[in-house]
């Protein structure tokens, strides 16, 4: 399609790096340590529930808010894990993955010219949806080597037009889990400046050396926080695209107001299955995290052995390396050379940055079977990775 046929609201937004790199992995027969999806599905009992719903006639439109069983299960989940009280009839809405939650939240809440503070490196859909909503992103950078949130940088990003903070913790791609003190800095600012916080917590259960604290549990935050999550990462069903948004009625209503024109409702038969997962397999995400922790450790050790400077993540599917030790200045060039050099695909951080802070950083996924991680490491060890 000629560029001039693309609406302005999409100008300058590159195609998602994940499609590009996964296609490259397929084409070159590479081990895909790029895109973050597991290669083993979630609990069979949950799949059996989905089959039951499909065969049992739950194949027509679900209610716009989502099927009651799932909204109730989400409310129970938030209470069980975090002590959060939600009314499932007005404070929870089911979305088509967290991706639609992000889209509907931004389209439903942001007016043109509103500024949104967003952690950088950012998940790529934030940038696209902020732009489609007419908002202006104000990145606050989590900087190597530790990727912590600097409260001074956060404050410096605020202007008279700031309306929102878009948080992500556990954070993709750095693996940072924001501490209570870091979250408190965000909360202090939000209360002082009357900001709404939209928080993407899809990795809430995939933490290793740190505890995930939902920012909505901090004093004064419940009434100004919209929390997004999904079954994709917690239950290894990334292809199901069942997510949810929860929080005060006004914010949930805004999500629903946009969501009704995006998808109207989300997949009926998968919703009762996810309700079953949340209620009947509440221990699954922790078991998954324990398995992922071993793969994280193996991947980080292997990447260190091949001469990369590794940042061990506290959460998510991903580890980050600095490639400058191997003489590289540009992560994208490194990642484009990697399939041919080594038969491995990884993701450059720089596509998630406005500035140069991520130029020498590369993200590697460990949400793969142990033999896949081992094969990737074997190939890296056998290759010449120097610039
Ligand atoms: C995977 C991911 C999402 C998307 O979640 P879905 O439920 O698959 O739509 C959103 N945010 C972050 C940070 C992610 O890594």
UniProtKB/TrEMBL annotation:
CDD domains: AAT_like (cd00609). Keywords: Aminotransferase, Pyridoxal phosphate, Transferase. InterPro entries: Aminotransferase_I/II_large (IPR004839), Kynurenine-oxoglutarate_AT (IPR051326), PyrdxlP-dep_Trfase (IPR015424), PyrdxlP-dep_Trfase_major (IPR015421), PyrdxlP-dep_Trfase_small (IPR015422). Pfam families: Aminotran_1_2. Residues 31-378 form the Aminotransferase class I/classII large domain. Its cofactor is pyridoxal 5'-phosphate. Belongs to the class-I pyridoxal-phosphate-dependent aminotransferase family. This is N-succinyldiaminopimelate aminotransferase.
């Amino acid at each position: 399609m000629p560029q001039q046929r693309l609406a302005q609201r999409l100008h300058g937004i590159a195609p998602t790096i994940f499609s590009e790199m996964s296609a490259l992995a397929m084409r070159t027969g590479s081990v895909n340590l790029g895109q973050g999806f597991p290669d083993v599905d979630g609990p069979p009992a949950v799949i059996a529930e989905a089959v039951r719903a499909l065969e049992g006639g739950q194949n027509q439109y679900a209610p716009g808010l989502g099927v009651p069983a799932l909204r109730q299960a989400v409310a129970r989940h938030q209470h069980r894990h975090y002590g959060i009280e939600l009314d499932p009839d007005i404070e929870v809405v089911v979305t088509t993955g967290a991706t639609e939650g992000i889209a509907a939240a931004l389209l439903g809440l942001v007016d043109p010219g509103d500024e949104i503070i967003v952690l950088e490196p950012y998940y790529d859909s934030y940038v696209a949806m902020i732009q489609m909503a007419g908002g202006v992103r104000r990145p606050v950078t989590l900087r190597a080597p530790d990727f912590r949130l600097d409260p001074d940088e956060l404050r410096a990003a605020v202007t008279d037009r700031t309306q929102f903070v878009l948080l992500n913790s556990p954070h993709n791609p750095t693996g940072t889990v924001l501490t209570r003190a870091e979250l408190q800095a965000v909360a202090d600012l939000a209360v002082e400046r009357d900001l709404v916080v939209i928080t993407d917590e899809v990795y809430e259960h995939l933490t290793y050396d740190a505890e995930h604290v939902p920012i909505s549990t901090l004093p004064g935050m419940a009434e100004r926080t919209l929390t997004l999550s999904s079954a994709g990462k917690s239950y290894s069903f990334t292809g199901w695209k069942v997510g949810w948004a929860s929080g005060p009625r006004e914010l949930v209503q805004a999500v629903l107001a946009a969501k009704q024109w995006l998808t109207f409702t989300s997949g009926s038969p998968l919703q009762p299955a996810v309700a079953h997962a949340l209620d009947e397999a509440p221990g699954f995400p922790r078991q998954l995290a324990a398995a992922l922790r071993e793969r994280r450790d193996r991947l980080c050790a292997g990447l260190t052995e091949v001469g990369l400077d590794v940042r061990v993540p506290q959460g998510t599917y991903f580890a980050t390396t600095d490639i400058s030790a191997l003489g590289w200045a540009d992560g994208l060039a490194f990642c484009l050379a990697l399939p041919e050099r080594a038969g491995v695909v990884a993701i450059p951080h720089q596509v998630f940055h406005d500035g140069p802070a991520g130029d020498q950083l590369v993200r590697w996924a460990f949400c793969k079977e142990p033999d896949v991680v081992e094969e990737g490491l074997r190939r890296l060890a056998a290759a010449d990775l120097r610039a």
